[in-house]
Amino acid sequence: MALEISTIENKISEKFGTNVSNFRMERDIFTFEATPQAIIEVISFMKTDETLRFYFLTDLCGVHYPDNDKSAQFAVVYLLHNWIDNVRVRVKTFLNGDKPEVSTLTEIFQAANWMERETYDFFGIKFTGHPNLKRILNDEGMVSFPMRKDHPLEDAGRTDKDDRFFGRTPNNYEPTK
Q1: Which of 99, 91, 106 is nearest to 74 (CA)?
Q2: Model confidence pLDDT, tens digit, residues 123-134
Q3: Which residue from 92, 63, 98, 64 is spatially nearest to 78, judged by alpha carbons?
Q4: DSSP 3-state of 118
Q5: Weakest mean pLDDT among 15-19, 43-47, 64-68, 78-82
Q6: What's the average model confidence in pLDDT over 20-38?
Q7: For the chain, what is the largest distance between any 2 Cα atoms, rounded to a whole number of angstroms?
Q8: If exposure means fewest CB atoms within 10 Å of the residue's CB, which of 31, 62, 99, 175 is most exposed?
Q9: What's the pTM?
Q10: Which residues sit opposite 90 in a β-bridge?
Q11: Neighbours of 33 (CB within 10 A)
Q12: What is the spatial distance between Cα 126 and Cα 47, in angstroms, rounded to a whole number?
């Protein structure tokens, strides 16, 4: 018998109560939210429960919502897959903008290791308990996080580019001689 969305919602709601909310279909993927305090327990339950069987972490990523209230300016999105019943679920947890921090998922899914490092590298979201949380693609000396919406799109101090080649010629541009 195939795993029904209602079964997923009922089992998770019964087990976690007010720590989970906002169950919905979002772009053909069943989605819900969990509190940062419960997210690890929720995902662990989804993996180990004999009915749910979400054995595969497809993706983990960050999102920055700068216009949200401070308490929910960042989100970590977990995409899980039950390949037995071919069901996918998206679980979101919202984090405080002043201290975006959530527990690591590496004890449950080893694949979370690099995904969490990438999320830290680009969004500055800290995964407490991570075995090696450091930048993975950007330079260790960077002090900013390039996927945050408040990060400048370009480095204003660059001298190695000519705006004429990018269609951004200022009105007061005078060619050099």
Answers
A1: 99
A2: 999 999 999 999
A3: 92
A4: helix
A5: 64-68
A6: 96
A7: 77
A8: 175
A9: 0.84
A10: 31, 79
A11: 19
A12: 23
What fold is seen in the domain 5-103? Beta Polymerase; domain 2 (3.30.460)
Alpha-carbon gap, residue 102 to 93, rounded angstroms? 9
Q: Considering only CA atoms, which of 146, 147, 99 is closest in space to residue 127?
A: 99
Residue 8's identity, in one-letter code, is: I
Burial class (CB in 10 A: 0-12, 13-18, 19+), 167: exposed
Alpha-carbon span 73 to 126, nearest angstrom: 14
3-class state of residue 9 by DSSP: helix
- Per-residue pLDDT of 51-95, as tens digits, reads 999 999 999 999 999 999 999 999 999 999 999 999 999 999 999
Of 19, 30, 23, 12, give the one whose Cα is nearest residue 79: 30
Q: Where in the chain are the domains?
A: 5-103
- The CA distance from 117 to 125, in Å, is 9
Rg (CA), the chain: 20
Average pLDDT over residues 112-132: 96
The one-letter code for the residue type at 46 is: M
7, two tokens: 């079964």
Quick one: average pLDDT of 131-150? 86
**Going by DSSP bridges, is the β-strand pair 29-34/20-26 parallel, antiparallel, or unpaired?**
antiparallel
Cα dihedral sign, 44-47-48-52: positive
